[in-house]
């Protein structure tokens, strides 16, 4: 429940997926997250960035493969 409320708060403040990829620790503090929440969010953001990079590589690979055909 807390995570849902937290998510709604961030959406209300204009934080979306694209912006999350660029969020720094200091930004999380400005958003009002306490130390434990910041630590969890930083871990999740790291996972999100890694997944995003993996997705971009897959798209690039698919485009390259399509050009060869």
TrEMBL record:
The keyword Coiled coil is annotated on this UniProt entry: yes
Coiled coil (UniProt feature): 38-65
Keyword Coiled coil: yes
Keywords: Coiled coil
This protein's name: SAM domain-containing protein
Organism per entry: Leptidea sinapis
């Amino acid at each position: 429940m807390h995570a849902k409320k937290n998510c709604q708060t961030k959406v209300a403040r204009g934080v979306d997926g694209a912006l999350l990829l660029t969020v720094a620790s200091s930004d999380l503090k400005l958003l009002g997250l306490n130390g434990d929440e910041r630590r969890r969010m930083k871990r999740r953001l790291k996972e999100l960035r890694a997944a995003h990079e993996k997705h971009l590589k897959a798209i690039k690979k698919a485009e390259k493969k399509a050009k060869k055909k």
